[in-house]
Amino acid sequence: MYSTSYLLFQSLTAVALGDALGFPIQHEKRTNLFDDPIREMVDHRVIDVPAGTWSDNTSLSIASLVSLTFGYNLYDLMTRYSQWFHFGDYTPFNHSYGSDCTTIQAIKRFDAGTAPELCGSTSPDCDNNTTLKRLMPLAFFILTKNPHYQFDGESAQLIHSYTATTNRTPKSFVAAGLLTNVIIRLIQNPNKYAMLRAVKEVLDYYRSQPEYAAQVPFFEQLEESHFLRQSSTKITASEDVVDTLNSVFWCLMNSEQYNVAVSKAVNFGSDAATIGSITSMLASLLYAPVTFPESWLAKLQGRHQIKIAVSVALLSDYF
Question: What is the tens place of the pLDDT at every residue in 96-110?
Fold first, then answer.
């Protein structure tokens, strides 16, 4: 296990790299990973921002890390999300980009006085990957607090409450528990078998919980090697939380290098920024220590914000 300081900085940088690589082609429809693939940072094709600009995936991750630096406080967490949306905090150019409707509506509820843990949507239409965007800082926070960590009722409740600030459906809670546990287990033991065991550990827990057991079949394919080894044309990439996890895990299981996994992820198109960001973060842990492509780092905007956020976090008692 590498030091927390190294892995935290590497992971947040990876979030931003995958985000910035995929953001310019966000929502493009692609039928084949090899059709005009994106392998380098390019200018955004719709918004007038330079290559290397990241979106809400990175902004929300930085905001979450800064908040957790001062402890687990959902009111503080939502306040920072609101500052991001309204004032452009935690962004390269003081303007929020890539804001999804689920997050925006949650922030508006918070601004109107709703308690943070009730701000998330309960609509099945919001079973989307907003649930997954900002879990990396929480995973490091949980592991630091619990050196003998296990995925149990206490861990699940902490993750659910955090997730509920934007998404409050049972499927969202299971997805968040799954990804958080995978992050923690990869920090502890960086290999693909640990990743798959982490999936099983979480699904076994939720199978034993009556209120969540019905959600488990949506994720069981992540335990099946034949699903993870099938052709990329069989994988559906979208903002849906299950589709996102399917895409991320497929990219990781069908790559042996960091940059290969990330390139595959963004070239699925669709929600390229989020799928790219999550894949990049997990790949940075799976293949640690990672040497990021210099051409990607050279164009990455706002790198100083990542360094400052991580440096302050590591001076606290929570990381």
Answer: 987 899 999 999 999
